[in-house]
Amino acid sequence: MMIEVELGAPLAGWVIPLEKIPDPVFAQGMVGDGLAIEPIGDMLHAPCAGTISSVHAARHAVTLALAEGVELLMHIGIDSVGMAGRGFEALVSPGARVAAGDPLVRFDLDQLALRASAAATPIIVTGPGVDILARHTGGMVAVGETVLRIGARAAANGIARPQAAAGEARRHEAVVALAHGLHARPAARIATALRELRAEVFLESGDQRASAASSIAMLGLGLRHGAPVTIVAHGADAGEAITRVLAVLQHDTDVPAATVAPSRSIVPEGAIGGVGAAPGLAIGPACWLRTNRPAPTRLGAGVMTERSNLVQGIGMVWAELEAESQGEGQAADVFTAHRAILEDPSLIDAALARIDSGESAAFAILSAAEAQAGILRASGDARIAERGADLVDVGERIAHAILGTRANMIMPPEGAILLADDLLPSQFAALDTDRIAGIALARGGPTAHVAILAAGIGLPMIVALGTPLEAVAEGASLLIDCDSGFVRVDPDAHAREGLAAARARRAAVEARARTIGAAAVHTADGISVSVQANCGSVADAQAAMAAGADGCGLLRTEFLFLGRAAAPDIGEQRATYRAIFEALPERPITVRLLDVGGDKPAPYLSLPAEENPALGLRGIRVALSRPEILEAQLSAILGLPVPGPLRIMVPMVASAHEMAAVRAVLDRLRGDTAVALGAMVETPAAAIGADLIAAEADFLSIGSNDLTQYALAADRGNAAVAAMLDGLHPGVLRLIAETCTRAGSTPVSVCGGLAADPMAAPILIGLGVRTLSVPPAQVALTKALVTTLTVTAAASHARQALACASAAEVRALARRFAEELSA
């Protein structure tokens, strides 16, 4: 008999599909079907009546058994098992009977957002004969609002008393070696590993037995680290089944991604692996950044009072941001972006709606900011996710302003390494960066605003170190190697000697750099290499000129188009471009056409919602679909007196016909203006088809960041594959080699992150790249590096790199090359 059950939302928040969860186990349905909710509250409720099957030892996951054998898994956050129960309070116990809406778990949403890789909470339904008849299509839901309607036939519960199995069974005693016990991810992997085998498998613990075909049933056993368990299997493949279960239970390869730093190189034994966000090496005492977050009460003092409080708080922060954005440099650009957040009505409207429901203004703005940040984190794109920190930053500033409080900032000792879980842009701006030697973060990303700020002032920063960083004691000696991507606690004499040698090499390079200035550079065997700068503002252009850049190899123009209600007109664009051109007299300038869509949406373009924006309407595809935007930008650029050679670059080119379409518009508008048209190589198709694209282009420029992501099919927003994302992967290097070879006489430059990587630059030159475009702060050092190379040695080094098996091997090879070069 089929029955239907309606499931109410166990949390208030935003409904998102499972495939948007940044975890393949849930996204690919390995645990079961359902949906997820990005929470805005702090309580998990029962979605319907049932019996509690299990509460995980870390209290982040609850299973609920329904009538007719259906089971629900509610898993608060992704990788939250690594929080080891901190911030979670279970309000029910296994065996308890609950009604719809009953509270199950209270949790600290702030801690969840900070410590888990995502706050999104999967709601999974499983059981034989269970079908999802209807599901919520997305958007905000309140607790109890229907999100799923399921149909179920009678079925046996997945957990039962041991029963005699048909045929002879094989038994194997084991111990759970998983650091966090048998939680959702390894349980799903066991079930998946057994799916193709001819075997029936159970796990037994005490007087309970769970089918290994059901990940939820296995969760009900509550197996912690070190717990004894018996694997029972019968059938033709019983022996293989036991081997596969043991492979999961006894080899902790599934430590949550939030606790494992993605490493871009071979991490020395005893070190903590991370991702270099701003280059450099440093050693000093560890100093933890402890700040007080706003702590408002939930209930307000009345709607009118709280609305007034919100308006006043916004006004105070607006004035602060207006002052902070008046300066020059990247910090001013960041706070200009924060002003744009305040201009976005969606954040304020969400806060006002919460005030109207009875919340205080400070609580409402914090919750609204966190909810929107959570949506960005669940996007699956690292750059979008990292913008969530900016939303939280603005929300906290407004809340502090309403409460009349300030974030307490410590005064680190001279030469300290600053440690934090994550760092907000306003916190970075408040630091006395002259006092600190470097920064190490448990979370964060290499494209976050704080990483950009640190790189801009030459402050070494390493991110994504994970929970192992928490074990570092205040005052402990800490060595950070942001070039190789690791942190070493209490380094021994050998490690200190290695640091001293690396510092000596860097000092020698910096000394040479200071003598070069604006002079053109060539390799030691006489081959000219142009070192240009990536710019996104007048301040960047001024910094590039001061650093001796040979020109601007990448002028980003999207800063003019984002964070506003309408596109800039020709006059506004022209005024901005003129100021940047004038800051780089007699230097070649490469202007990249508008690159929006995907990770950089512009609301006024009304681009359609896409399941995978990175593979959708972005880059030149947007401009060709909106010809008025393309023509206005080209007209603004071409209508200016250019003090040096002018080049226009087309983003995200995949085929020659796109270049032909842009050239047709350019030729119609250019008049007598001399201008070169180039294509960005950011996709494997563009690299392999470089000869075809070169026929329509005057130059090619490799955007190594996107080329790496697309070539390796690895999204930095997905913690499960983040460690793969290294531009020195042999596959990426081979695409760059193909680009240089197929381009023939068409010049090839690199303007992505690889150009500024001292481990990568010699390989790029060896492959045939003759122009490197880097952040202004890296210009002098890159010029100095070029003068130490010979193209002959670089080409031999590049051939060896192409033959390596992994990015780690390439980086090891590159370190040896650098040491030999400086010997």
TrEMBL record:
Keywords: Cytoplasm, Kinase, Magnesium, Metal-binding, Phosphotransferase system, Sugar transport, Transferase, Transport. It catalyses: L-histidyl-[protein] + phosphoenolpyruvate = N(pros)-phospho-L-histidyl-[protein] + pyruvate. Residues 169-258 form the HPr domain. GO terms for molecular function: kinase activity; metal ion binding; phosphoenolpyruvate-protein phosphotransferase activity. It is an enzyme of class 2 (transferase). Signal peptide: none annotated. Its EC number is 2.7.3.9. InterPro entries: Dup_hybrid_motif (IPR011055), HPr-like (IPR000032), HPr-like_sf (IPR035895), PEP-util_enz_mobile_dom (IPR008279), PEP-utilizing_PTS_enzyme (IPR050499), PEP_util_C (IPR000121), PEP_util_CS (IPR023151), Phosphohistidine_dom_sf (IPR036637). PROSITE patterns: PEP_ENZYMES_2 (PS00742), PTS_EIIA_TYPE_1 (PS51093), PTS_HPR_DOM (PS51350), PTS_HPR_HIS (PS00369). Belongs to the PEP-utilizing enzyme family. NCBIfam families: PTBA, PTS_HPr_family, PTS_I_fam. This is phosphoenolpyruvate--protein phosphotransferase. The lineage of its organism: Bacteria, Pseudomonadati, Pseudomonadota, Alphaproteobacteria, Sphingomonadales.
